[in-house]
Design a protein that fits this description.
mainly alpha
């Protein structure tokens, strides 16, 4: 969802999905379900490479312990990543 929104903009994705602004907000926040029809439309908006990059990042975060096996986030690990990243000149 976020990849498509960042690529095309919220209004365009909302129009392609045929949903209201409220539903779009719910989809972005994980409060509304993405049914199969919407999923197919969303996947058609991203390239295979973009899709693989998202999956690759998720796997790297799991291996690094940022995302636990049950899918929850280890906040102490996230804070440590942010602390280290704050020293990076490009990220400042």
């Amino acid at each position: 969802m976020l990849c498509a929104v960042s690529k095309l903009g919220r209004d365009r994705v909302r129009g392609l999905l045929g949903v209201s602004r409220v539903t779009m907000w719910g989809l972005e926040k994980g409060l509304a379900a993405v049914d199969d029809e919407k999923l197919v439309k969303l996947l058609s908006l991203v390239t295979q490479r973009e899709f693989e990059e998202v999956l690759g990042a998720y796997r790297r975060l799991r291996v690094a312990g940022v995302i636990r096996d049950d899918g929850t986030v280890d906040y102490s690990a996230v804070l440590e990543v942010l602390r280290v990243a704050s020293y990076d000149e490009c990220l400042k």
